[in-house]
Amino acid sequence: MATPPPPTQPEADAALASTTGPGSDSQLVPAVPARFEDPGLPEHRLRRTDTDPRAAKRAERTVSLLFGLAMLAGVGFVVAYFAIRITDPTSAIRSTQFTGLALAVMLLCIGFGAVHWAKQLMPDHEQIEQRHRVASTPLEQQQAGQILSQGAVEVGLPRRKLLWGSLVGALATLPVVGAVPLWGLKTHNRNQTPAQALSHTVWRSGMRLLKEADKTPIKPSDLSLHEVVHVIPQVTTAQGHLRPDVDANAVNSHHELTLNELAKAVVLLMRIPPGDLKEPAERKNWSVEGIVAYSKICTHVGCPIALYEKTTSHLLCPCHQSTFDAADQCKVVFGPANRPLPQLPITVDAQGYLIAQSDFTEPVGPSFPERG
Amino acid sequence: MTTTRTPASAAGRYVDARLGVARLAKVALRKVFPDHWSFMLGEIALYSFVVLLITGTFLTFFFNPSMTEVVYNGSYVPLKGIPMSEAMNSTMNISFDVRGGLLMRQIHHWAALMFLAAIAVHMMRVFFTGAFRKPREFNWIIGVNLFILGILEGFAGYSLPDDLLSGNGLRIAEGITRSIPVIGSYASFLLFGGEFPGSDFIPRLYIVHVLLIPGVILALITAHLIMVVFHKHTQYPGPGRTNSNVVGYPLMPVYLAKAGGFFFLVFGVLALLGAFVSINPIWNYGPYHPSPVSAGSQPDWYMAFLDGALRLMPGWETHLFGWTISWNVFVPAAVFPGILFTALMFYPFIEAWISGDRREHHLADRPRNQPTRTGLGVAGITLYALLMIAGGNDVLATLFHLSINAMTQTLRVLVFVVPVFAFWLTRRLCLGLQRRDRETVLRGSESGTIIQTPSGEFVEIHTPTTPQRAFALASHDSPAPLELPAAQDPRGVRRPGSRALARLRARLSHFYFADALTPATPAEVAAVVHHHDEPTPLPVGDNPQPSTKA
């Protein structure tokens, strides 16, 4: 490939942008060209290993030593693999470190050896290869064009419009047939539209609020001022049976909520100082003694909201810092969320435990197009 | 031709008789590659990908991509008896009960970070040196797509263990999917098989992660490399290195040894990281559960810019006729990256249109010689960096005791202001460097030796510039801005095409190239020498005249 392009293709050179100017000013000032002339490749400089046989021998020994070390490290890897028994995380990490070190030493020795060999001992004369024009020759382009246009004529491209139109139509239908079976990807919630499924949670009227930590019911007196409790719904009776008003599909065989149900049903319960709490008239009876319950799922993109700031009664989502005012209907006070956190209307039952009055009155979690 | 009958030559003849490979080998093995450290960046990406394939295959032998709930009973005591998905359980077993498992997992994760980092830096190199210009535009597009696919592949990969961190990441992805106008909820239900989290997603993500995306990446890498061989590599300008040749070392043996050795070096560094630097310790996070979340959690670095964009966007939504459009999610998570990557993909064509340059380019630009392009690139990197900072705003606010709200609000302004400033500053710096190059060619470089002339004047001796250096510094061409062509051609016929478009093109071209300096010419050097009426050394007079503007 180190041959110059054939002289029969002068356009090949002309197509490549020339960096040295044509020197059009040379008639005016014959001594000074328009651009600096290419002085050519600098003179090749010999390496120590080219001139001194002892240096070359030394380089050879270094490379061989590195390859030898790689071999030893390989043996070390096998030894480390079998010698370190994994019984607990500490030994697993020790095994990782020793086998990893041996592997790294082996790989690095091979790598350094090969590069050192190339740099010190392999020929380092720079070679020049001419570039060829990327485009085909005009003749080739013409020939290819002829074959294409002849082929088009042979299949009747301009004339047989009906034939081609119907073929294009048939092929255009194909992606539809390919895409439609993807509808089957929706394997659950078959009898519901997404909007229907997203609009309800497992919360029902009369369902007790349980502390998520120990699954016990909560009395208003359990909550001190500004105390926050992570809450899940109680879906079983006192005897551990599934309550009749709970959708049996929503819970697993242990009568516990599935992750799917929990993903919408988790609630934050907190007691707001009576003077701070701002409630509109229609929500006046949604709280109990200043205790309010809000969905824990952020209305931005659905992270669980975890941080509560006592001095301001603000709830902060740790993912993208949307901030909600728990004292004022969990309205957004900062960050990328748009909607307030949905409130769960609560009251107390005959035994004095906190219960839900109903499900959430609006969908929880991030917005979706049909959300309205 | 001598007929040597070694076993190797016999084997070669055997294969050649069936595949005719000698013809190819003759050309390919002596193929010349230019030598420069910045040409190794793409290699790092390639070798990281090979490491990903090797370690990833090992991991598939032990990983079970199922969301079925099991109770953990492995050797990590704090999680014993805790229910978790089979995916998390098998990842725990890979980490603590399979020998070499944790090493492979950690090398795999480090290699993924390295893969994307190397692609990003390689892309910067190609951008700033103009190596995307004709005839390499298609290869640039392939490269941008490899970056996008790499991001998706990485996200899919770190979501598979189904731990608390990645589960919350998936929940964010679900929230983003819901924000697609009109079809959002359906798109989410199709992806997850129903409501989040469901039981379908991890198995689906698994096949996407181990087959679909790697298959496409592999095909694109193959095409990418074939094009590199076909176009021959670009090279930096210098004596003997022109637009119509390649100067370097042949594949056989030098590059085979160097590149092959470099693969082992990259793998070796990744093995060191995997052995000693803990990454994604899922046992600290625990299994996914919808209620808890860890504060200060961060995605892998390549997702941070999108996370930052999500954090900075104000909470805008439109509620119209019973429909919701979530600008607060859809714009930063979908529209913004869409515009960013589309602009990146089409940049070579945009620049070619603005410059009107239709020539082939095989010499790398020095970034200073393209001030506007370099400025745009730095502005882009600045924006990306600011969004990454925004992605860690909570961590930074805690670290530096700043108000998170003030920080977010400041960043909302800075993402618009700082890139513009970075563009302006970079362009000025490039023009300044161009001036210095001209000065160096015209007057040589400062030697530090000051002499006193008999008349009492002090002058510094300037070391004259060698012809080699002058050629390297002043052989580039400086494109002139396109002028707006007259509305009618000389015969009074109206030119075809949109007039407004032509005007836009001329203005952009002016914006791009009007300030560019022309490189020094031998005539100018002669003039300087003549002006001072001294041959060499070339002293700088007491009032150094500014170099002439183009």
Give an overview of the whole structure.
By secondary structure, chain A is an alpha+beta fold. Chain A has helices spanning 10-15, 48-51, 53-83, 89-120, 138-154, 161-179, 194-198, 259-265, and strands at 127-130, 209-211, 228-233, 267-271, 291-295, 307-309, 314-316, 323-325, 331-334, 343-344, 346-348, 354-356. Chain A has a five-stranded antiparallel β-sheet. In chain A, strand 8 and strand 9 form a beta hairpin. The longest helix of chain A has 32 residues, at 89-120. The relative contact order of chain A is 0.08. Mean pLDDT of chain A is 87; it is low at 1-29. Chain B has 550 residues and is mostly helical. Chain B has helices spanning 7-19, 21-28, 41-60, 86-96, 101-128, 137-159, 164-178, 184-192, 201-231, 251-276, 282-285, 304-312, 327-355, 371-391, 393-400, 404-443, 467-474, 499-513, 522-532; strands at residues 32-33, 69-71, 83-85, 245-250, 318-320, 323-325, 445-452, 458-463. In chain B, the strands form four sheets. A two-stranded antiparallel sheet of chain B has the order 1-4. In chain B, strands 2-3 form a two-stranded antiparallel ribbon. In chain B, helix 7 packs antiparallel against helix 8 (184-192) and helix 12 (304-312) crosses helix 14 (371-391). Chain B starts with 6 loop residues before the first helix and ends in an 18-residue tail after the last helix. Mean pLDDT of chain B is 91; it is low at 533-550. Chains A and B meet through helix 4, strand 1, helix 7 and helix 8 of A and helix 5, helix 7, helix 8, strand 4 and helix 10 of B. Strand 1 of chain A pairs antiparallel with strand 4 of chain B, so a sheet runs across the interface.
